[in-house]
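Bug: token stream looks shifted between consecutive jobs. Job 1:
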Amino acid sequence: MRQRSRRRSVAAVIATWACAIALLAAVPVTLPATIAPVESAAAADARDFNPGNIIDDAVFYDGSAMGAGEIQSFLNGKVTTCRSGYTCLKDYRQNTDDRPADKYCNGYAGAANESAATIIDKVARSCGISQKALLVLLQKEQGLVTSTAPSAWNYSAATGQGCPDTAPCDASTQGFFYQVYYGARQFEVYRMNPSWWGYQAGRWNNILYNPSASCGTQRVFIENQATAGLYIYTPYVPNQAALNNLYGEGDGCSAYGNRNFWRTYSDWFGSTQAGGRPFGNLDAIEAYPGGIRVRGWAIDPDTSDPIQVHAYLAGDATALTADGDRPDVGSAYPGSGSRHGFDSRIPVTQGGSGQVCVYAINTARGSNVTLGCRDMPFYTGSPVGAVDAVKVSSGSVTVSGWAIDPDTASSIDVHAYVDGVGTALRASGSRTDLATHYPVHGTKHGYSATLKVPLDAKQICLYGINTGRGDNTTLGCRSIMTPASRDIGRAPIGSLDAVDVAGTSARVSGWAIDPDTKKSIPVHIYVAGAGRAITADDSRRDVGGAYPAYGNAHGFSEVVDLVPGRSTVCVYAINTSGANTTLGCRDVTAADQGRAPIGNFESVSVSGRSATVTGWALDPDTVRPIAVRISVDGKVTRLTAQANRPDVAGAYPVYGAAHGFSRAVDIPIGPSKVCVTAVNTSGPDTDLGCRSITTRDEGRTPIGSVDEVSVSGTTATVRGWAIDPDTARPIAVHVYVGGSATALTADRSRPDVGAAYPPYGSAHGYQTNVPIPVGTSRVCIYAINTAGANPLLGCRTVIGMAGAPVGRLDAASGGTGTVSVRGWAFDPDVKGPVTVRVAIDGTTREVRADKNRPDVGAAFPAAGSAHGFEQRLTASKGNRRVCASVVDDKGGSPVSLGCTSVTVR
């Protein structure tokens, strides 16, 4: 059995180990039968176990030891096939949520349907714990890596984090994702707060062998923080008995958690020792205006001297020396001293964002080690900002907004230009709203000023003035044009946005404003010289936003018919007083290309004897609405698809919104089929689809008939028809013989029924064979209502017969080369004629007993008269022995009908 997990908390092992004794009972670890055997390339050797250095820090705190793909391949190799009904770790997936960053882990970006391999990899990189160590922890605690039948509880308490022996797991850490995340985070809590705990690196510690104090302790010099963390997590050292039987049980004082961790890691990944590789921690990577700050510490176990650290910003390297004083590091690693910290600011050379990675540089044995990587914003480049408001008054304009240069937290200049004339402003006002979005730049970046402007001023533009890398930035331009108190003859402005051609029509759209009035003005559209006057009064929020003094009502969107072939469309804004303005001209070509209509039959809803059909349809060759046909079982209703559908206009803006349809049509009783067709203006129509519907079931009683009940042996054949007046679909029929029921569907073709009840069709017949007992019984047939009472269609009394075949060989006579036989036979258990076997001196022939024998029918009325046989068979000359028999259909011995001797000439 596996040692149960325990709650990891500050109180668990702080100060003394008196509390730890009560935490859990250490029991031998024997993997259950559901766990596949671990494949080890080379078995661990207990002589290599060092209780003071179970695993090197450089190995345990290597958050880049494996990738998600490598983890998945590793899991696949441990369990090839999972037991039916279980989900193994290699196949496990779950939704994860965001976890906030703190000083122990860098947080977690949740995602849907993440694999266990992805979760393990992301957590390892966030908290700086080796992916290999987390895999071993999952195996040590729950055997999850190799289990072929893991339980829900195994996943819920995967690492044992927050799961004491004496109470349920802490709900805040339950579940595989939380177990992995908070289990990894707990080791960082141990590492970064070494003085909180009873077991500490760099000193001698008395470590219990077992929760039972009578088993004693071992004095261990803990060499590193990773080993200290393992003892805090599982506070027992393996005794010699546990080490002597490394893959089995020791004695009553043995504990196995840390032994199993070391053994499993060694079996799966090789040595737990780093071989001289550096180790350390990336405490923080912070962005500041113009650069990145990196902070942490690094130690090479081969020297107590400071070592180099290389920081890479989007691929650009900077060499640092980790020689800052870090008393906390010196306390955790007294043999190395405290001069191993680094805290540097590195300028960035490009804006946007990128990855920042920091490496500890090896000095002797081993290799360089990645301390961590982060995706960071790079604050450099051209200014950013906004024009929040522009308020125009007679002769003045007030502007406000904000501007920041990413390279500095200081305020910068903003230049305001009115129709080309500039004024310098300072963006130094308080803007507390910017702190959330630009936390490293402060809040002194707002601007607000009132400028004098001419009465006919048109536009103001504002620019953020660059101080470092980059160029000046246009913050925005706004119209400051305002209506005059009197018409001063300014020319209209506007735009011909588009002339969208669809076949032989076009949609002409744009906007127009007369600067002297807020009112909507006329627009004239000319197609090949023929004009049409409209008013530009459609809502255009974009125009209202650009020219706030004039409002939104200045847009136009008009459908015009085009002449065949090439032509020109021109649009003019009509001045209230003065010259008109040409908004633009477009050359177009009109032609119906015969393209098929498109659309959607969206729904059909039934109410009583009518159905409402809805959808939309348009012809790509015209902007105008087209016809739609609605067919109900062949009966057609024609309408125009011109209802307002803003969603269609959103998807097909050229064609506008007038393409919807919704029409109520009559429908017959019961089921029917509704089909919709979009009618082409020139070319093939388009079927938009069909839907099957039915009227409401009113609970009317079914009708029908029992046409026949016939018996053969112990089988009754039942035939008839049944209809439910509330539906034209076939209904169920139940046949009862005594208390035994047989269900069938009345769906056979009955043209006579269809002729009598034409709305319902002919598929309402039923016929089936049902078993009946020997003797007299009652057969009753019921029509099953779709909603309501089930009526009895009729009952019949029947007599079941059973037993061996009966019959007789009446006569046999010889002829010239022939033998003639005559007789009768039937089997009470068989419906219809049986086959008689005629043997002439042992050579068997088969004869069908299906000839009319009124005498047999009179003697056996239940069997009928079609059971006689008479046949001339070929035979060789001489005296011959003739015998007749019938085989019992129940598998009994053949029944003899008699034998006789004849002479063949």
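Job 2, same session, no restart:
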Amino acid sequence: MIYRYALSILIISLFGSPVFAQKQDSVSLNSIIEKTGKMASSRPIEKLYLHFDKPYYAVDDTVFFKAYLTDNYKQPSQLSKVIYVELMNSRDSLVQMLKLPVKEGVAYGSIPLPELTFRQDNYHIRAYSKWMANFDAAYFFTKTLPVGNAIDKQINTSITSTKTGSDKSLQITSRIVFKDTDGNPQAGKKVTWEVSSNVDDVAKGKGTTDQNGALTVTFTNNKQIDLTGAAITAFIDLGSGKRAGRSFPLKSILGNADVQFFPEGGELLIGTRTRVAVKAVSSNGRGINFTGVITDNSGATVANISSQHAGMGSFTMLPETGKQYKANITFANGLKASYDLPKVQVSGINLSMTTADAQNVTLKMLASPAFFEANKGKVFYIIAQSSNTVCFAAQTALKEQVFSANIPSSKFPTGVVQFTLFTSTGIPVSERLIFVQHKDQLSLNVTSDKPAYGVRQKVKFNVTAKNKTGPVDGNFSVSVIDESKVPVDEDGETTILTSLLLTSDLKGYIEKPNYYFNKANDQTVSDLDVLMLTQGYRRFSYTDVIAGRLQPITYLPEQGIEIAGTLRTLNGMPFKGGNVRLYIPDKYFSANAVSDPEGRFKFSNLSFPDSMKIIATAKNNYNGKNLMLMLEPITYPAINKNQLYPDEVANIDSTMRPYLLNSKKQFNSMHVLKEVVVRAPKTAKINHTAYPALSGLSSIPDHLVTGDRFICPMLLTCLQGTLMGVTYDQSTNAFYVTRDYNQGRRVPMAIYVRGMPVDVNYLASMQSTDVESVEIFLRDDLGLINNANQTNGVLVFNTKTPPKGTKISLQELQELIPQPNTVNIMPKGYNIAREFYMPKYDVPKPVGMDLRSTIYWNPRVVTDKATGATSVEFYNADGKGSYRAVIEGFDKDGNIGRSVYRYKVQ
């Protein structure tokens, strides 16, 4: 059953302290609870999780997934009916965006990875609802999605890199190994390489591979260029005029190893024994194990420390007056460093929590001697909340320096719980996160009709779903993979449990989140508690809540596709009571809207697939020729830097070798037609040199983006994050040269379409299919354009040459000219998910090889309400070994569940 904590708050007086009358400047405990409840009801949270059919892919695959959208109580969300799924490359450029309808909290999607659009890279997924976009983007669903390439591949590569020196004389040494697809070293081959960062060339050189097929590249950043987006690009000469290249991002080694200290409750307090968590992170963003010694300023040893998991550990110490402390750390790689601990505070109070007892949470209030003397007898509040819902509240008077109490764990739901200690004036003074695990997830039982199977044999799964009280009607997705082709790091998986219970409530990168759920034991419980000490929870600020400052709302919950705008007269005045007609010709659909006193109109709850033509017109109004339609632009959250870069796979060729070998076999087994060369007259490509106004620009642009890169219908949407070296600022609605923008020089770029200057609003009206190419000039060397227009850099849009046609009449020409009272658009519609292909082997000897890696994918598995049971059937492929099935999902009451089942194919 779902816990309805918001309806019943436990307000108690800890340690027998009486409830007392509040002073005039005090804030009552009930007031804090009521304001928090108001915030939770008016700003409810949504969480989104995506279940994928497998953890990684290859070019020409199709990504299948199911989305689960939940509310505060992990129930299927009734708030939003639309979600967005974005796919970005390793340079944080948007490659594709899906818009999906949500029904009963679920949605289905697929992302084809065609060879012409995708390459080997670490892509990352970002998914959200527009309502979620009102809050911190750190709580969107994110996941790294490595994609390899096995099509017509000649070379496999791997790289290891190290760095030395400081920022001003940083030296990077990389060893790149080249092998053919059979694993043979490419010895004695010539290699050219270059290092570039966005628009700047850092270094270049050439060399010859050794007997192991390796080349060592060393360069120094003498120019002190920002290497944030830097990459090494290496090309190997394979002979006979053939070359192969690969690009290696350097961001995994650019960071510095760092150690942070987190006193439990917030501060190191004099005379107060305090638990301190330690987190050590290597340059690649992942935890690094360590040992060390804590010493005071006299050199005396205070504590010995070591990591217990993923570079995290903890120790206890008793800070003394007049002492400063530091940690002498030895990392697992042999490097040593010293770090200062946080400054010791004379006065303060900390919360301390213990969760070792499954039945109780032990809470302690630890006051320093100075704080205790100054605040003896004063009242303090303790509030615990989970998913923005208060589930425990208490108050007590400070009568002792150390107070302790047990709170039944049953008061809290499974998941992250935030405890906050307040003064009676409502000031938060200490905070502690804990993780409560009741093991109350759905029981999902999967059984097969046979203990083992043969290849291509029919498999039947019987699935039952139960909660603690009995069977449930749940909504689930099932994936079955061949583990010999798709090895899985189970600790590193993103699951419905890790997402909805853990990572969706915490800020920052969490390494291998499924480690804490995969094989839960006393050690993982202890490690999870250390994680709680080192992570941050900032969904809201209690200071803002108490002051009545609510998060401003930019996006309302979407109930469907919406098209809105303003109807005006040609002189710009709003037109009241005007009829606006909307047509979707391909669906034989039409609707009518009437403009309000401010001329606004809106079509709500529309539903149509992507890339569909929409017509909105006001021409049927009286004097309609003197009216004009202005549609509201559709905005999306800005694309931020990927925080999951530590999950990126540096050496995809070797790490994903079993999968890519199978993908290559699949590709080669297909019936591919032999190449036929068709010769035709070459069509001259249009570029900026065809326009006199742009004659002052260099003959070669800094970057060229061809029109086939724009795969979304509206051009402006595609441009955001796609143009190399260019940043789009949504707040100013302008494009900037990234290098100058990051340095504070915010001068917009000039924009030309067909040789004519335009603004960004003009681009919003253009279709992506009309663009032949975009030329990016990060410099205007002669200054003829930038000096005249007070701009910095130039974007040149070349449109496709229209086909030659026949002569038309004047009337036909007038019909082709856009009318102000009519708008033709192709807005972002719903993306239709592909159906997963499932062969049926009803004949004894079918032709061809079945090399599928995903054996079965079904996002529509629903259990019966009375029995909690259902069944699914599918056929095995030709692969032998262990097959792994994963079922995930939830019921209508917000109970979530996950189960893994394996069977043998002989």
